[in-house]
Amino acid sequence: MKDLTKYEDQKILVLGLAKSGVSAARLLQKLGALVTVNDAKPFDENPDAQALLEDGIKVITGGHPLTLLDEGFEMIVKNPGIPYTNPIIKGALEKKIPIISEPELAFQVLSGELIGITGSNGKTTTTTLIQLMLEKNRPSGHAYLAGNIGIPATTVVQKVQSNDVMVTELSSFMLASITTLKPHIAVITNIFSNHLDWHGSRENYVRDKMHITKNQTAEDFLVINWDNPEWQQLSQQSKAQVVPFSRQGLSTQGAYQKGDFLYFRDEQIINVEDIKVPGVQNVENALAAIAVAKISGQSNEAIVSVLKTFGGVKHRVQYVESFAGRDFYNDSKATDIEATQVALRSFKKPVVLIAGGLDRGYTFERLEADFKVHVKAIVLVGETKNLLAETAKQAGVPTIEFATKVKDAVLKAFTLSAPGDVVLLSPANASWDQYPTFEVRGDEFIEAVKALESGEEG
Fold first, then answer.
1. What is the pTM of this model?
2. Side by side, which strands form the sheet with 143-147?
3. Each residue's pLDDT tens digit, 314-355
4. Which CATH homologous superfamily contains domain 103-309?
5. What sign results for the dihedral spanned by CA atoms 126, 128, 131, 134?
6. Is the domain 318-457 a CATH 3.90.190.20 member?
Protein backbone atom coordinates (compact mmCIF):
# COMPACT_ATOMS: atom_id res chain seq x y z
CA MET A 1 0.00 0.00 0.00
CA LYS A 2 1.22 3.49 -0.85
CA ASP A 3 2.07 5.85 2.01
CA LEU A 4 -0.57 8.46 1.15
CA THR A 5 -0.56 11.69 3.15
CA LYS A 6 -3.19 13.75 1.27
CA TYR A 7 -5.97 12.81 3.72
CA GLU A 8 -4.14 13.68 6.92
CA ASP A 9 -6.37 15.90 9.10
CA GLN A 10 -9.02 16.13 6.36
CA LYS A 11 -12.65 15.94 7.47
CA ILE A 12 -14.18 13.06 5.53
CA LEU A 13 -17.68 11.63 5.68
CA VAL A 14 -18.29 7.93 5.04
CA LEU A 15 -21.94 7.72 4.00
CA GLY A 16 -23.49 4.29 4.53
CA LEU A 17 -21.80 1.36 6.22
CA ALA A 18 -22.05 -2.36 5.43
CA LYS A 19 -18.71 -4.06 4.64
CA SER A 20 -17.40 -1.43 2.26
CA GLY A 21 -18.26 1.54 4.50
CA VAL A 22 -16.65 -0.01 7.56
CA SER A 23 -13.53 -0.87 5.59
CA ALA A 24 -13.28 2.61 4.04
CA ALA A 25 -13.67 4.27 7.44
CA ARG A 26 -10.88 2.16 8.95
CA LEU A 27 -8.52 2.84 6.04
CA LEU A 28 -9.19 6.60 6.22
CA GLN A 29 -8.51 6.56 9.95
CA LYS A 30 -5.19 4.79 9.25
CA LEU A 31 -4.40 7.50 6.67
CA GLY A 32 -4.87 10.17 9.35
CA ALA A 33 -8.24 11.54 8.26
CA LEU A 34 -10.84 12.95 10.65
CA VAL A 35 -13.56 10.44 9.88
CA THR A 36 -17.30 10.65 10.49
CA VAL A 37 -19.55 7.76 9.49
CA ASN A 38 -23.26 8.17 8.89
CA ASP A 39 -25.64 5.24 8.54
CA ALA A 40 -29.45 5.09 8.38
CA LYS A 41 -29.74 2.12 10.73
CA PRO A 42 -30.33 3.07 14.41
CA PHE A 43 -27.29 2.81 16.67
CA ASP A 44 -28.66 0.07 18.95
CA GLU A 45 -29.30 -2.11 15.87
CA ASN A 46 -25.98 -1.25 14.24
CA PRO A 47 -23.02 -3.35 15.44
CA ASP A 48 -20.77 -1.89 12.74
CA ALA A 49 -21.36 1.65 14.01
CA GLN A 50 -20.84 0.50 17.59
CA ALA A 51 -17.48 -1.08 16.73
CA LEU A 52 -16.29 2.01 14.86
CA LEU A 53 -17.27 4.25 17.77
CA GLU A 54 -15.20 2.07 20.11
CA ASP A 55 -12.25 2.62 17.78
CA GLY A 56 -12.56 6.38 18.07
CA ILE A 57 -14.47 7.14 14.87
CA LYS A 58 -17.38 9.58 15.10
CA VAL A 59 -20.69 7.95 14.20
CA ILE A 60 -24.09 9.42 13.38
CA THR A 61 -26.90 6.92 12.89
CA GLY A 62 -30.66 6.68 12.43
CA GLY A 63 -30.91 8.71 9.22
CA HIS A 64 -29.01 11.02 6.89
CA PRO A 65 -29.53 14.54 8.34
CA LEU A 66 -28.91 17.36 5.89
CA THR A 67 -27.22 19.32 8.68
CA LEU A 68 -24.19 17.05 8.15
CA LEU A 69 -23.35 19.16 5.14
CA ASP A 70 -22.70 22.13 7.43
CA GLU A 71 -19.77 20.37 9.13
CA GLY A 72 -17.20 21.28 6.49
CA PHE A 73 -16.46 17.87 5.03
CA GLU A 74 -13.78 17.95 2.34
CA MET A 75 -14.85 14.64 0.76
CA ILE A 76 -17.58 11.97 0.94
CA VAL A 77 -16.99 8.26 0.44
CA LYS A 78 -20.41 6.99 -0.62
CA ASN A 79 -21.80 3.50 -0.12
CA PRO A 80 -22.58 2.15 -3.61
CA GLY A 81 -26.21 1.43 -2.69
CA ILE A 82 -27.04 5.08 -1.96
CA PRO A 83 -28.36 6.73 -5.16
CA TYR A 84 -27.50 10.19 -6.38
CA THR A 85 -31.14 11.15 -5.80
CA ASN A 86 -30.56 10.94 -2.03
CA PRO A 87 -31.05 14.47 -0.57
CA ILE A 88 -27.69 14.53 1.21
CA ILE A 89 -25.89 13.53 -1.99
CA LYS A 90 -27.77 16.17 -3.98
CA GLY A 91 -26.86 18.74 -1.33
CA ALA A 92 -23.20 17.69 -1.42
CA LEU A 93 -23.10 18.07 -5.19
CA GLU A 94 -24.58 21.56 -4.88
CA LYS A 95 -21.81 22.43 -2.40
CA LYS A 96 -19.26 20.87 -4.77
CA ILE A 97 -18.06 18.39 -2.14
CA PRO A 98 -16.15 15.60 -3.94
CA ILE A 99 -17.93 12.22 -3.79
CA ILE A 100 -16.00 9.01 -4.43
CA SER A 101 -16.61 5.29 -4.15
CA GLU A 102 -14.82 2.84 -1.87
CA PRO A 103 -12.86 1.21 -4.76
CA GLU A 104 -11.73 4.69 -5.85
CA LEU A 105 -10.27 5.23 -2.38
CA ALA A 106 -8.55 1.86 -2.58
CA PHE A 107 -7.04 2.66 -5.97
CA GLN A 108 -5.49 5.85 -4.62
CA VAL A 109 -3.31 3.80 -2.25
CA LEU A 110 -2.79 0.75 -4.49
CA SER A 111 0.85 -0.29 -4.94
CA GLY A 112 0.24 -3.15 -7.38
CA GLU A 113 -1.69 -3.60 -10.60
CA LEU A 114 -5.48 -3.28 -10.87
CA ILE A 115 -7.60 -5.53 -13.05
CA GLY A 116 -11.23 -4.37 -13.04
CA ILE A 117 -14.22 -6.40 -14.16
CA THR A 118 -17.75 -5.14 -14.76
CA GLY A 119 -20.83 -6.19 -16.72
CA SER A 120 -24.52 -6.87 -16.28
CA ASN A 121 -23.96 -10.61 -15.92
CA GLY A 122 -21.01 -12.93 -15.42
CA LYS A 123 -18.69 -10.51 -13.65
CA THR A 124 -18.37 -12.50 -10.40
CA THR A 125 -17.52 -15.76 -12.17
CA THR A 126 -15.15 -13.96 -14.54
CA THR A 127 -13.46 -12.14 -11.66
CA THR A 128 -12.96 -15.42 -9.80
CA LEU A 129 -11.60 -17.23 -12.86
CA ILE A 130 -9.12 -14.44 -13.55
CA GLN A 131 -7.86 -14.43 -9.97
CA LEU A 132 -7.43 -18.21 -9.98
CA MET A 133 -5.62 -18.15 -13.32
CA LEU A 134 -3.24 -15.37 -12.31
CA GLU A 135 -2.49 -16.96 -8.93
CA LYS A 136 -1.77 -20.39 -10.46
CA ASN A 137 1.98 -21.11 -10.45
CA ARG A 138 2.67 -17.39 -10.01
CA PRO A 139 6.46 -16.92 -9.84
CA SER A 140 6.27 -13.98 -7.41
CA GLY A 141 3.62 -11.96 -5.63
CA HIS A 142 -0.07 -12.77 -5.41
CA ALA A 143 -3.34 -12.21 -7.26
CA TYR A 144 -5.92 -10.95 -4.77
CA LEU A 145 -9.72 -11.01 -5.12
CA ALA A 146 -11.60 -7.83 -4.19
CA GLY A 147 -14.61 -5.60 -4.76
CA ASN A 148 -18.27 -6.27 -5.37
CA ILE A 149 -17.59 -9.97 -4.93
CA GLY A 150 -17.93 -9.37 -1.17
CA ILE A 151 -14.37 -8.42 -0.17
CA PRO A 152 -13.91 -4.64 0.14
CA ALA A 153 -11.08 -3.29 -1.98
CA THR A 154 -10.04 -0.97 0.87
CA THR A 155 -9.37 -4.05 3.03
CA VAL A 156 -7.47 -6.00 0.37
CA VAL A 157 -5.37 -3.05 -0.81
CA GLN A 158 -3.63 -2.80 2.55
CA LYS A 159 -1.73 -6.04 1.87
CA VAL A 160 -1.09 -5.55 -1.86
CA GLN A 161 2.59 -5.09 -2.75
CA SER A 162 4.14 -3.77 -5.95
CA ASN A 163 4.42 -7.22 -7.57
CA ASP A 164 0.83 -8.17 -6.74
CA VAL A 165 -2.37 -7.73 -8.72
CA MET A 166 -5.79 -6.87 -7.30
CA VAL A 167 -8.55 -8.48 -9.37
CA THR A 168 -11.60 -6.37 -8.58
CA GLU A 169 -15.27 -6.76 -9.43
CA LEU A 170 -16.78 -3.31 -10.00
CA SER A 171 -20.52 -2.70 -10.02
CA SER A 172 -22.18 0.14 -11.94
CA PHE A 173 -22.97 1.73 -8.54
CA MET A 174 -19.25 1.78 -7.70
CA LEU A 175 -18.19 3.01 -11.12
CA ALA A 176 -20.62 5.94 -10.94
CA SER A 177 -18.36 7.52 -8.28
CA ILE A 178 -14.83 7.11 -9.60
CA THR A 179 -12.43 9.91 -10.49
CA THR A 180 -8.91 8.49 -10.96
CA LEU A 181 -9.46 4.70 -10.84
CA LYS A 182 -7.67 3.12 -13.82
CA PRO A 183 -7.40 -0.62 -14.35
CA HIS A 184 -4.39 -1.79 -16.34
CA ILE A 185 -6.80 -4.39 -17.73
CA ALA A 186 -10.53 -3.60 -17.76
CA VAL A 187 -13.14 -6.25 -18.62
CA ILE A 188 -16.71 -5.68 -19.76
CA THR A 189 -18.54 -9.02 -19.83
CA ASN A 190 -21.74 -7.59 -21.39
CA ILE A 191 -24.15 -4.67 -20.95
CA PHE A 192 -27.89 -5.17 -20.84
CA SER A 193 -30.53 -3.07 -19.05
CA ASN A 194 -30.16 -3.34 -15.31
CA HIS A 195 -30.69 -1.29 -12.14
CA LEU A 196 -32.59 1.37 -14.07
CA ASP A 197 -34.47 2.31 -10.89
CA TRP A 198 -31.11 3.41 -9.43
CA HIS A 199 -29.49 4.91 -12.53
CA GLY A 200 -32.64 6.58 -13.85
CA SER A 201 -32.18 5.48 -17.46
CA ARG A 202 -30.35 2.93 -19.57
CA GLU A 203 -28.21 5.73 -20.96
CA ASN A 204 -26.98 6.54 -17.45
CA TYR A 205 -26.40 2.86 -16.68
CA VAL A 206 -24.27 2.36 -19.80
CA ARG A 207 -22.36 5.58 -19.11
CA ASP A 208 -21.51 4.42 -15.58
CA LYS A 209 -20.43 0.99 -16.80
CA MET A 210 -18.10 2.64 -19.34
CA HIS A 211 -16.42 4.57 -16.52
CA ILE A 212 -14.27 1.46 -16.09
CA THR A 213 -12.24 2.52 -19.12
CA LYS A 214 -12.52 6.32 -18.98
CA ASN A 215 -9.07 6.82 -17.39
CA GLN A 216 -7.27 4.14 -19.38
CA THR A 217 -4.48 5.01 -21.82
CA ALA A 218 -2.88 3.32 -24.80
CA GLU A 219 -0.69 1.34 -22.39
CA ASP A 220 -3.78 -0.36 -20.92
CA PHE A 221 -6.19 -3.02 -22.22
CA LEU A 222 -9.97 -3.23 -22.57
CA VAL A 223 -11.27 -6.81 -22.84
CA ILE A 224 -14.83 -6.61 -24.14
CA ASN A 225 -17.56 -8.94 -25.40
CA TRP A 226 -17.71 -8.65 -29.19
CA ASP A 227 -20.97 -10.54 -29.76
CA ASN A 228 -23.21 -7.47 -29.85
CA PRO A 229 -22.86 -4.50 -32.26
CA GLU A 230 -23.59 -2.05 -29.42
CA TRP A 231 -20.68 -3.38 -27.35
CA GLN A 232 -18.38 -3.19 -30.35
CA GLN A 233 -19.39 0.44 -30.80
CA LEU A 234 -18.93 1.22 -27.08
CA SER A 235 -15.35 -0.05 -27.29
CA GLN A 236 -14.56 2.96 -29.50
CA GLN A 237 -14.94 5.19 -26.43
CA SER A 238 -11.80 3.66 -24.93
CA LYS A 239 -8.23 4.87 -25.41
CA ALA A 240 -6.96 1.44 -24.33
CA GLN A 241 -5.92 -1.43 -26.57
CA VAL A 242 -9.16 -3.31 -27.31
CA VAL A 243 -8.99 -7.09 -26.95
CA PRO A 244 -12.30 -8.70 -28.01
CA PHE A 245 -13.71 -12.02 -26.89
CA SER A 246 -16.40 -13.78 -28.90
CA ARG A 247 -18.32 -16.98 -28.37
CA GLN A 248 -19.70 -16.53 -31.89
CA GLY A 249 -16.23 -16.24 -33.40
CA LEU A 250 -16.87 -12.69 -34.64
CA SER A 251 -13.25 -11.71 -34.05
CA THR A 252 -10.01 -13.68 -33.92
CA GLN A 253 -8.02 -10.75 -32.51
CA GLY A 254 -8.53 -11.92 -28.92
CA ALA A 255 -10.25 -14.93 -27.33
CA TYR A 256 -12.91 -16.76 -29.33
CA GLN A 257 -14.74 -20.04 -29.87
CA LYS A 258 -14.26 -21.96 -33.08
CA GLY A 259 -16.02 -25.28 -33.29
CA ASP A 260 -15.53 -27.20 -30.06
CA PHE A 261 -12.45 -25.25 -28.95
CA LEU A 262 -11.55 -21.93 -27.35
CA TYR A 263 -8.63 -20.00 -28.80
CA PHE A 264 -6.56 -16.94 -28.02
CA ARG A 265 -5.54 -15.46 -31.35
CA ASP A 266 -3.99 -18.44 -33.14
CA GLU A 267 -3.45 -20.61 -30.04
CA GLN A 268 -5.87 -23.42 -29.24
CA ILE A 269 -6.49 -23.37 -25.47
CA ILE A 270 -9.20 -25.84 -24.38
CA ASN A 271 -12.09 -27.98 -25.58
CA VAL A 272 -15.42 -26.51 -24.49
CA GLU A 273 -16.44 -29.90 -23.10
CA ASP A 274 -13.54 -29.73 -20.63
CA ILE A 275 -14.89 -26.61 -18.89
CA LYS A 276 -16.34 -27.86 -15.62
CA VAL A 277 -19.21 -25.39 -15.15
CA PRO A 278 -22.13 -25.73 -17.60
CA GLY A 279 -23.74 -23.21 -19.91
CA VAL A 280 -22.89 -20.85 -22.75
CA GLN A 281 -22.54 -18.02 -20.25
CA ASN A 282 -19.60 -19.82 -18.71
CA VAL A 283 -18.00 -20.19 -22.13
CA GLU A 284 -18.16 -16.40 -22.39
CA ASN A 285 -16.77 -16.00 -18.86
CA ALA A 286 -13.95 -18.40 -19.74
CA LEU A 287 -13.12 -16.46 -22.91
CA ALA A 288 -12.90 -13.18 -21.00
CA ALA A 289 -10.68 -14.77 -18.36
CA ILE A 290 -8.47 -16.40 -21.00
CA ALA A 291 -7.94 -13.02 -22.67
CA VAL A 292 -6.84 -11.42 -19.37
CA ALA A 293 -4.60 -14.33 -18.45
CA LYS A 294 -2.87 -14.33 -21.84
CA ILE A 295 -2.37 -10.54 -21.78
CA SER A 296 -0.82 -11.05 -18.34
CA GLY A 297 1.58 -13.68 -19.67
CA GLN A 298 0.03 -16.71 -18.00
CA SER A 299 0.69 -20.18 -19.40
CA ASN A 300 -1.91 -22.24 -21.24
CA GLU A 301 -1.28 -25.04 -18.74
CA ALA A 302 -2.37 -22.85 -15.80
CA ILE A 303 -5.42 -21.54 -17.70
CA VAL A 304 -6.59 -25.03 -18.64
CA SER A 305 -6.04 -26.36 -15.12
CA VAL A 306 -8.34 -23.70 -13.67
CA LEU A 307 -11.07 -24.17 -16.29
CA LYS A 308 -11.08 -27.93 -15.76
CA THR A 309 -11.41 -27.70 -11.97
CA PHE A 310 -13.38 -24.51 -11.20
CA GLY A 311 -16.82 -25.57 -9.96
CA GLY A 312 -18.63 -22.25 -10.14
CA VAL A 313 -19.46 -19.38 -7.80
CA LYS A 314 -22.08 -19.62 -5.09
CA HIS A 315 -25.52 -18.35 -6.19
CA ARG A 316 -24.52 -18.32 -9.89
CA VAL A 317 -26.03 -21.48 -11.45
CA GLN A 318 -24.51 -23.23 -8.45
CA TYR A 319 -24.93 -26.99 -8.32
CA VAL A 320 -26.39 -27.84 -4.89
CA GLU A 321 -27.48 -31.47 -4.70
CA SER A 322 -28.82 -34.42 -6.67
CA PHE A 323 -31.32 -36.78 -5.13
CA ALA A 324 -34.39 -38.73 -6.17
CA GLY A 325 -33.14 -38.28 -9.73
CA ARG A 326 -33.41 -34.47 -9.62
CA ASP A 327 -30.58 -31.94 -9.92
CA PHE A 328 -30.94 -28.78 -7.81
CA TYR A 329 -29.27 -25.50 -8.89
CA ASN A 330 -29.12 -22.19 -7.05
CA ASP A 331 -29.00 -19.16 -9.35
CA SER A 332 -30.21 -16.54 -6.88
CA LYS A 333 -27.80 -14.01 -8.43
CA ALA A 334 -30.08 -13.95 -11.49
CA THR A 335 -31.61 -10.58 -10.62
CA ASP A 336 -32.58 -9.70 -14.20
CA ILE A 337 -34.26 -11.32 -17.21
CA GLU A 338 -31.07 -11.93 -19.18
CA ALA A 339 -29.46 -13.89 -16.34
CA THR A 340 -32.47 -16.19 -16.11
CA GLN A 341 -32.47 -16.67 -19.87
CA VAL A 342 -28.82 -17.70 -19.69
CA ALA A 343 -29.49 -20.09 -16.81
CA LEU A 344 -32.39 -21.80 -18.57
CA ARG A 345 -30.32 -22.24 -21.73
CA SER A 346 -27.63 -24.00 -19.69
CA PHE A 347 -29.77 -27.12 -19.31
CA LYS A 348 -30.91 -29.73 -21.79
CA LYS A 349 -33.06 -31.47 -19.17
CA PRO A 350 -36.62 -30.26 -18.35
CA VAL A 351 -36.63 -27.49 -15.75
CA VAL A 352 -38.96 -26.80 -12.84
CA LEU A 353 -38.30 -23.12 -12.26
CA ILE A 354 -38.62 -21.05 -9.09
CA ALA A 355 -38.78 -17.33 -9.95
CA GLY A 356 -40.08 -13.95 -8.84
CA GLY A 357 -39.05 -11.06 -6.61
CA LEU A 358 -38.92 -7.28 -6.50
CA ASP A 359 -41.20 -5.42 -8.92
CA ARG A 360 -39.08 -2.86 -10.78
CA GLY A 361 -41.80 -1.89 -13.20
CA TYR A 362 -40.99 -4.11 -16.18
CA THR A 363 -42.76 -7.15 -17.64
CA PHE A 364 -41.38 -10.51 -18.73
CA GLU A 365 -42.35 -11.13 -22.34
CA ARG A 366 -38.69 -11.72 -23.22
CA LEU A 367 -38.77 -14.90 -21.13
CA GLU A 368 -41.65 -16.41 -23.09
CA ALA A 369 -39.53 -18.25 -25.68
CA ASP A 370 -37.25 -19.76 -23.01
CA PHE A 371 -40.22 -20.78 -20.88
CA LYS A 372 -41.70 -22.50 -23.90
CA VAL A 373 -38.54 -24.48 -24.66
CA HIS A 374 -37.14 -25.27 -21.22
CA VAL A 375 -39.77 -24.99 -18.45
CA LYS A 376 -42.15 -27.84 -17.65
CA ALA A 377 -43.51 -26.24 -14.45
CA ILE A 378 -42.99 -22.99 -12.56
CA VAL A 379 -43.39 -21.95 -8.93
CA LEU A 380 -43.61 -18.18 -8.39
CA VAL A 381 -42.93 -15.97 -5.38
CA GLY A 382 -42.66 -12.28 -4.57
CA GLU A 383 -44.09 -9.07 -6.00
CA THR A 384 -43.75 -10.13 -9.64
CA LYS A 385 -45.41 -13.53 -9.34
CA ASN A 386 -48.55 -12.52 -11.24
CA LEU A 387 -46.59 -10.85 -14.05
CA LEU A 388 -44.43 -13.94 -14.45
CA ALA A 389 -47.50 -16.16 -14.31
CA GLU A 390 -48.95 -14.28 -17.28
CA THR A 391 -45.77 -14.83 -19.28
CA ALA A 392 -45.71 -18.52 -18.31
CA LYS A 393 -49.35 -18.83 -19.38
CA GLN A 394 -48.59 -17.23 -22.76
CA ALA A 395 -45.65 -19.63 -23.17
CA GLY A 396 -47.91 -22.62 -22.54
CA VAL A 397 -46.18 -23.77 -19.36
CA PRO A 398 -48.56 -26.55 -18.25
CA THR A 399 -48.22 -26.07 -14.48
CA ILE A 400 -48.07 -22.68 -12.76
CA GLU A 401 -48.13 -22.52 -8.97
CA PHE A 402 -47.46 -19.94 -6.27
CA ALA A 403 -45.58 -20.05 -2.98
CA THR A 404 -45.08 -17.63 -0.11
CA LYS A 405 -41.28 -17.76 -0.01
CA VAL A 406 -38.42 -19.69 -1.60
CA LYS A 407 -38.35 -22.39 1.09
CA ASP A 408 -42.02 -23.18 0.39
CA ALA A 409 -41.37 -23.12 -3.35
CA VAL A 410 -38.70 -25.82 -3.05
CA LEU A 411 -41.18 -28.39 -1.74
CA LYS A 412 -43.73 -27.51 -4.43
CA ALA A 413 -41.06 -27.66 -7.14
CA PHE A 414 -39.92 -31.08 -5.96
CA THR A 415 -43.49 -32.35 -6.03
CA LEU A 416 -43.93 -31.06 -9.59
CA SER A 417 -40.64 -32.55 -10.81
CA ALA A 418 -39.74 -36.07 -11.92
CA PRO A 419 -36.51 -38.05 -12.11
CA GLY A 420 -34.32 -36.53 -14.80
CA ASP A 421 -35.51 -32.96 -14.15
CA VAL A 422 -33.65 -29.88 -12.95
CA VAL A 423 -35.08 -27.79 -10.10
CA LEU A 424 -33.71 -24.30 -10.63
CA LEU A 425 -33.95 -21.14 -8.55
CA SER A 426 -33.38 -18.33 -11.07
CA PRO A 427 -35.62 -15.44 -9.99
CA ALA A 428 -35.15 -12.89 -12.84
CA ASN A 429 -35.68 -10.27 -10.13
CA ALA A 430 -33.86 -8.61 -7.27
CA SER A 431 -34.51 -10.03 -3.80
CA TRP A 432 -35.36 -6.89 -1.86
CA ASP A 433 -39.12 -7.41 -1.64
CA GLN A 434 -38.57 -10.37 0.74
CA TYR A 435 -34.83 -10.76 1.38
CA PRO A 436 -32.07 -8.26 2.24
CA THR A 437 -29.72 -9.77 -0.37
CA PHE A 438 -29.72 -12.36 -3.13
CA GLU A 439 -27.27 -14.34 -0.97
CA VAL A 440 -29.85 -14.71 1.82
CA ARG A 441 -32.41 -15.82 -0.76
CA GLY A 442 -29.99 -18.36 -2.23
CA ASP A 443 -29.02 -19.68 1.19
CA GLU A 444 -32.68 -20.27 1.98
CA PHE A 445 -32.95 -22.32 -1.22
CA ILE A 446 -29.89 -24.38 -0.30
CA GLU A 447 -31.14 -25.01 3.23
CA ALA A 448 -34.59 -26.00 1.93
CA VAL A 449 -33.06 -28.43 -0.56
CA LYS A 450 -30.90 -30.03 2.12
CA ALA A 451 -33.90 -30.26 4.47
CA LEU A 452 -35.93 -31.83 1.70
CA GLU A 453 -33.18 -34.34 1.01
CA SER A 454 -32.93 -35.16 4.69
CA GLY A 455 -36.67 -35.76 4.84
CA GLU A 456 -36.55 -37.82 1.67
CA GLU A 457 -33.81 -40.00 3.06
CA GLY A 458 -35.62 -40.38 6.36
1. 0.80
2. 143-147, 165-169, 113-118, 185-188, 221-225, 241-246, 255-258, 261-264, 267-271
3. 898 888 999 999 999 999 999 999 989 989 998 989 999 999
4. Mur-like, catalytic domain (3.40.1190.10)
5. negative
6. yes
